[in-house]
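Q: Is it fine to ask for two folds in a single conversation?
A: Yes, each is treated on its own. Send the first.
Q: Here.
A: Result:
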Amino acid sequence: MPKVSLSLVNELWQDVRYGARVLRLNIGFTAVAALSLALGIGANTAIFQLVNSVRIRTLPVKDPQELVKFQIGNRRSASGSFYSAYSALTNPMWEAIRDRQKVMRAAVWNPDSLNLASGGEARYARIMWVSGDFFNVVGVPAILGRVLTVDDDRRGCGSPGVVISYAFWQREFGGNSSAVGKKITLDGHPFEVLGVTPASFFGVEVGRNYDVAVPLCSDAVIRGESTRLDVRRAWWLAGIGRLNPGVTAAQATAQLDSISAQLFQDTLPPNISPEYVKTFLAYRLSASEGATGYSSLRRQYENPLWLLLAIAGMVLLIACANLANLMLARASARTKEIAVRLAMGASRGRLIRQMLAESLLLATIGAAAGALLARWLSGALVALLSTEGNSLFFDLQPDLLVLGFTAALAIVTCVLFGLAPALRSTRLEPGAVMKSTSRGLTAGRERFGLRRALVVTQVALSLVLMVGALLFTRSLRNLLTLDAGFQQDGVLVTSLDFSRLNLPAERRNQFKSDLLERVRAIPGVESAASTGMVPVSGSSWNQEARVQKEGKWTSQGNVYLNRVSPGYFKALGTPILAGRDFNAHDTLTSPKVAIVNEVFARKYLGTPNAVGMQFRLDVGPGQPDPIFEIVAVTKTFKYNDLREDDEPQGFFPNDQEDKPGRSDQLLIRSSLPLTALTSSVKRTMAEVNPDISINFQTFRAQIVNGLTRERLMAVLSGFFGLLAALLATIGLYGVISYMVARRRNEIGIRIALGASRGNVAGMVLREAGLLLGAGLVAGVGLSLALAATAQAMLFGLKPRDPVTLIGAVLLLAVVAATASYLPARRAAGLDPMVALREE
């Protein structure tokens, strides 16, 4: 190695050792600086880990870049039943795609939950319904036994067997190899365990790991006569494929498009309106990149996570500004030392390098501590996103991208807080410093100006974060206090599954009615009702409504539907505005009736009181669909989401359902303590039949659990906003304290010449007020400029909400003014003789 290179390496090593020695001698400063950096870098790394898991990281399978997702690319609307966030295809569509496409190995899947328990309180496993070739397509082998094959997924298969995940194998079978060949029960049906997949494979849905993979053909066994295999309006499958060698996603889309016209003609649902026929036949299949898998969380959280990363970045900037101020203060104290070294021949470049080495060591310590902190913070973030009964799963192991991100943060922070102090502290004239007083030249206006600028920047950025925190907190409050049209508190959602009883269809309605009456008879139960779908639960059913106008049945648009029992609206606390509730006379043999909400009545029928009027659903040419007579109009309430606009809704009586299912959901309103109520309901169900499976959740908890995104933004933006305000306040306090210390002699002379204590305090507070005012003005402008980025995540607020802006300004001003008062009071209490003696 050349001598020059060896000399440079030796000098660099000496600089690092010098920096380490300086930090060791100033252990308090080192601890504060490292902690500040650890918080900033740790927060940024934790959020980036989630961004990486949700958006960037590919599935842990063989050659993930070859995977594509296939779906209807231009599906703007569809009617029917939807079973998950990935309800892209019906099974008839899938079978046609499987038989006709030629560009990939294709498979479909769908997430679900099935009960492992044989009765009593339910214990759910996370299910993946998969086509037979699924594991072969995604490239996942079995580590024990075998995976499913095409032969396992044929019509009439019954229950051929299942594949379980590594985590489920460890949890349920203790990792014993004898698990293969044993049976597990899913919704009362036994399935043999065929194999176990690797620990790294969680499925193809980011954020949700699977427990058991079940072949599609077993849907006929699990759901009986409600099977979705032949239902052309049951949207429940999502497609994934592995491209053939040499085929691109664009070529796959072209081939899928070429078979679309005939495919959708062959899978056209019966009994749909002419308008929807046109929409359906215009559908076209397409393929898109599938390496990162499916994720409803990606759509829900991608933008919030990027925004939170930007917020955390601002906090890190504020921390760097604080550290730069600390470094400038330390440099001021070392002015004569630096001047002496320059006078003795030390080069300016060497001095800058030594100071940067000190900064780099600090940044390295902070980054290492931040990386450790990020592991805990990432877990806390996942826990914040998870809800009761829906825990999320993310692969948070650091990869090269995350490590590179943390390293880049360390380098950037080193430059941000270390370079300016190093450059300024070495720009000295040694002779002038030697002739100056003991305070040196660092109190000069130019040198102090940088510290002022850093504080103004901190205040401005802190105000931006405070405004964001108040916006997101108020938005969450608006959602939690929203009048959703129903009473959220005091209602227990009870899910019942009596499929193990094998009741014939004609007995189920009466069985449900009897169960409901027994629940209503429980002491302390105020009202109870059964429903097909609980409001704001994620389940939905919509069809096109037609009303009679000018003698013709005319399509009006989609209506959200539900089947409910008498007493449903009473249990929800939703008033019936006109007409009557369903009753025992609404049976299979009586005229078909319905209740609609006020939006339906006004929008589709043009009147607030539609009692006695009629409508139909999706009437196809020549189809004898029943006409529904409206017997009541109810107040509108939220159906899918608290954020949604009020939509037309219709309700049908349970007892007029000709194909009742083998499960039910009860809404039980009671003032009893939750434990007492659940115990009574379980005891009542056990008395009827111990094979009835039961599951509980409070209505309020279900709604709150649907606000995880809003809760995440409110909690984290609030935390970062308070942290930023604290850092900015500390920075302002430090600058004002530094100013007071540098002007002790001047202040002492002023007091000695007759200046009042109030005048001295006012002088100091004016300096603080100028810095605070400049920062607030800059922060207001920045907040207004950035406000639009939060538009989509707010509810009931404008991004430029004046109340929020004024509140943030006042809050930050009060906190900062309080911090400035302390050095002002210290200056006012200065003894002039002591100050003059020091000079």
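Q: Second one now.
A: Result:
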Amino acid sequence: MSLILEDNVAARVSNHCILGFISVIVPFRLGKGLFLLKPKQLLLVFSLLFGISLSRSQQAVDVQHYDISLDISNIASQSIRGCCTVQLKSQTNNLQQLSLDLLEMTVDSILIDDVTASFTYNDTLLRISLPQTLNQNDTEDIQICYHGQPVGDATWGGFYFTGNYAYNMGVGFTSNPHNLGKAWFPCADNFTDRATYDFHITTVSSHKAFCNGLLQGTTTNPNGTITWHWKMPQTIPTYLASVAVSAYTSLHDTFRSISGDSVPVILAAQPADTGKLRSSFVHLPDAFAAFEQSYGQHRFVRVGYVLVPFSGGAMEHATNICYSRALITGGLEYETTMAHELSHHWWGNLVTCETAEDMWLNEGWAVYSENIFMEKVYGRASYKKSVRQNHKSVLQFTHIQDDGYRAVSGVPHDYTYGRTVYDKGADVAHTLRGYLGDSLFFACIQSYLDAFKFRHANSADFREHLSRCSGIDLNSFFDNWVFAPGFPHFSVDSFFVTSNDGSYDVTVFIRQRLKAAPEFFSSVPLELTFISENFDSAGRTILFSGRCGIYHATLGFEPAFVAIDIDEKISDAITDKFYRMSNTGNFDFEEALLTMNVTQLPSQAFVRVEHNWIAPDPFKTNVPGLHISKERYWKVDGIIPGGFTANATISFDGTPSLSTGYLDNGLISNSEDSLVILYRPDVKTEWAVHPSFTVNPQGSTANKRGRITIHNVAKGEYALGIWDHSRPVADSQVVSSPCFVLGTKAMDGEEEELQFQIFPNPANDSFYIEFAHPLLSDVKISVLNLSGKAIREVSLKPGESRLYISMKGWSRTTYLVTVTDANHEWVVKKVMVLN
């Protein structure tokens, strides 16, 4: 389902539950408000507050079929009346009593084999005594006749009477459990019990009823009403059962399935809305084709949408999607919602999450399907933009709206329909595609949907099936991305190149940092892209684990730039964009949150900008009164020719507002005049105030909002800083130091003692390390292979300056030598190659 809010920041889901029960019986205080609740509403309140499930029917039976006959001819009365015959199969021996869910109705009678059965009912659970004991696999038909005014959820979902419309939305956001089939018929109301349906819905002659499945016929009754008979032959859970009644007309079409079958399409709307409906749904055939191509054959008997006056979004009732009239404008601005709901015919309707805690299998994949729709209809660039926008939103807002960083699986009840499930779920789906590659991804997704069709599954089922299908152990992926919160962050600390008989040996030092994740991610397939000054390029994929890593490659050209995940296949804590620039002008790096005005461009440039959603490295030496952001920093990198001149503009916003994600609220503690831009060209260099920038307040230097223009932008890292002597000198930061820092140039002052040379280099069976001066303190020396494993570790004492290393029995390859002074946080390294 989709929830559309007018506030575009809260794009899909409300962050808080508002109890809307107003009565005159029992006062109940929640926060600052006073609510007057009926006793049975108090039961629901307690279920919401304390997680008590008051309407969960027992699993002693498996319902095979529902035959629902309802009179909804008097919409003004906001009531329904009728009977439901439940055909069930016993799951156990000696069954003498069964329970069904039914919410706040009046039960008129219950018949079993034409005999009146005894029952008890507490407005949520209907307990029925069986006239004879059932054993396992015994079947029984039970007819329950009832009437009443069906209820809605406190915030979203349930049954609605609006104007001349009557319709249901099958889940409730705050209801516990969320399933609301029980709002209009007695049922086993959960995600796992699936059944087929017959619907016999009576309306006034001017109205039509639309339900799941195919229309079997109509009957005109003696009183002038009409009974509409719909039949749903495929099994669905109760929350996907649907009825909608109004003065409808319908639009008809057929889609050709990849199976060769013709799939009927029915769009129901009031006559005044059909023109706009046609225009807004012009890409529905493309969405159908895109999802069949991506996910496999459409398995239901039709595609159907029915318009309702619901302002909060849409609900994916199988073959009869309830769709808000507000989304039908005649334009295409909401067509991704149309695609989202159709994708539920695969994600949720065909294979249903086993429990609400795994709702990401329904909703996260439906949001991701919006991206698939964009890719198939508008191209790969539109897909990447859609993914990038969603990822930026996840990093900026999701943890705020969901009250913390959460795993997509195992979400608590209050966040079942939160942004973690929807938006981060889509992020995870996109990342899974990056892990597997397109061929395996789509083949194994189709295999999973086919294997579990018309069944339920959980995240472990999903993991095991994809691992078997792909031949790739996905335990690490699910442990990191699905079962744990937070994000990884990957960066190139440094790299160096050595010439080797016409080719080039490249050694890359990579660091992983974490954003709200409990442990380092492992076995992450990272794509490295190497680009030369002449724009030659090559790619390599590595499996990365842990905090630090070293990668070695041999290339046919000398690279000047190394990028991680330039195609944005992994949703880590970075949003980025690049341009291949041939002309001067303005370049919007969009989700990297930076614009650049290029004024001089002597030759082509390749410029990549990253917005890093983690704290920058702290100062190596604290500067009294100067503070650096703990939230984010930018990196500008690429192939940038001499003479390149550009200004870059970033925005800051420290207002304590959800609309900004509170990004700079913790940094801006005084006047905006105190803001500075901090810059360093590489990770081994200390942060310094950039020599040329302009702060442009918006309206006031006290409103915490404005822009900063960085003049003469160059390659390197940029962070927001502020002068504030009232704050502690050293704000605590938990940030890992760089893994490796190249230090091959002469250093000033006390660091000069660590300058050393390796000879002979290349070496044969031994080499020497010699320092420029006798050491003043203990020094640790490590020789590493190109996987980062220490082959030899030794120490030199103060006063010593030379070390002999034997290499007998070593492999003939490149090694790294790291020299660490205990008084310094940086590491010096050199390379040697054996003959």
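Q: Anything structural to flag on that second result?
A: Two points. The chain is about 15% helix and 40% strand. The longest helix spans residues 380-401.
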